[in-house]
Amino acid sequence: MKWCSSHLPILLLLSVLSLFISRAAGFRICAYNVQNFNPSKANNYLVLHTLTKVVSRCDICLLQHVVDPDSTAIKTVVETLNRYDEYQYQSVSSKSLGKSPDDMQQYVFIYRTNTVNMTGQHQYTKKNSFVREPFVVQFQSSNTNINEFILVPLHTDPAKAVQEIDWLYDVFEEVSTKWNNTNVMFLGDFHASCAYVTRQDRKNIRLYTDPNFSWLIGDREDTTVTDETNCAYDRIVVHGQSFLKEIVPFSGRVFNFGRRFKTSMKRVLELSDHFPVEVRLKGSALHLQATPLLSLLGVSVIVWSFLPDL
Ligand SMILES: *[C@@H]1O[C@H](CO)[C@@H](O)[C@H](O)[C@H]1NC(C)=O
Ligand SMILES: *[C@@H]1O[C@H](CO)[C@@H](O)[C@H](O)[C@H]1NC(C)=O
Ligand SMILES: *[C@@H]1O[C@H](CO)[C@@H](O)[C@H](O)[C@H]1NC(C)=O
Fold first, then answer.
1. Which of 56, 107, 153, 162 is the most buried (most CB within 10 A)?
2. Quick check: is 111 in a domain?
3. Domain match, 1 and 137 both
4. Atom of ligand 1 nearest to the CA of 116
């Protein structure tokens, strides 16, 4: 047939292009300090709307400073996502953690069930250590090359930030042994900047002194919302060369959704005084999914290229 030969190059180009673009889109992991996210925040329609927009960009999103012991707020978030998003989501939460009854917080991971399996969870419990001990989760995704990896969340107590970040090394040893997996990522609001962690403090932090750990959010980033503070509090760190190789280069960044979604600073602050941070993993070539927009584009180009022959 005539069209076969004349349009084959276009079709080929399109599939290569879509392959390239969806590959570049990769698998996104996010961490967001949602500053006292509780049922009353979840009942605010505008706050909920913004939060679901942020979370729905991520294959896995860690939320910190969640105050939701009855799980009603997170249930609302997950239900809203499942009603409106093209993916299905689930959440896994730690218990309420903290040293004083009026400041108990949870770590919550929300993840897409279409692209991610949870394969293990572990609450770090060493006495006299963290104020909010990491609630560690192992995930598996055939959409990534790395396949199975461990996420260690941390929202430090600001006054103990140096010590708590250093202790992440002990958590690393415990969980990498437990699951025989050294593909470990640490993420969250470490307060790893400004007055809480100075350049001089780094010699006391094993995640800095051991070259096997790579810090993916730079010191010059500003993970805070207001203009008064300019601090790289929120971080993502990975262990090992093999995990580092599977990170999309330069994908570690702050997601300023005020700018992206054209949301006013006032509205951003209703949700949190932090911005989320994120990183992308390289996707496995066998499980590519073209984005809806791209498929639409592809279909219209194909239709358009047939028209002259009809
Ligand atoms: C999740 O696990 C199931 C059962 O092992 C497997 O068939 C599926 O491919 C996994 N999903 C992903 C995205 O890796
Ligand atoms: C641990 O993982 C390594 C490399 O993935 C593998 O060769 C080894 O057999 C595993 N050990 C155990 C006890 O499962
Ligand atoms: C870094 O990792 C390698 C391979 O796992 C290990 O042999 C080495 O001791 C580690 N480096 C440090 C400083 O711990």
1. 107
2. yes
3. no
4. 13
The answer as to whether 304 is a domain residue is yes
* 179 alpha carbon – ligand 2 mean position (Å): 9
Q: What CA–CA distance (Å, rounded) separates 306 from 310?
A: 7
Query: Is the pLDDT confidence value at 48 over 80?
Result: yes
- For ligand 3, mutation pick of 176, 212, 213 (most atoms within 8 Å of CB): 212
Q: Please tell me whether residues 191 and 297 are part of one structural domain.
A: no
Structure tokens at 159: 């006054």
pLDDT(84) > 70: yes
Q: Which residues contact 263 (CB under 8 A, 6 or more apart)?
A: 50, 257
Q: Which of 20-34, 51-65, 178-192 has the lowest mean pLDDT?
A: 20-34
pTM of the model: 0.86
Whether 20 and 31 share a structural domain: no
- 287 belongs to a structural domain: no
**CB neighbour list of residue 51: distance below 8 Å, 6 or more residues apart:** 34, 37, 77, 271
- Ligand 1 centroid to Cα of residue 115, in Å, is 8
Q: Look up the domain containing 15 and give its range.
A: 1-25+292-310
Q: How confident is the model at residue 310 (pLDDT cuts 50, 70, 90)?
A: very low
* pLDDT value at residue 155: 98
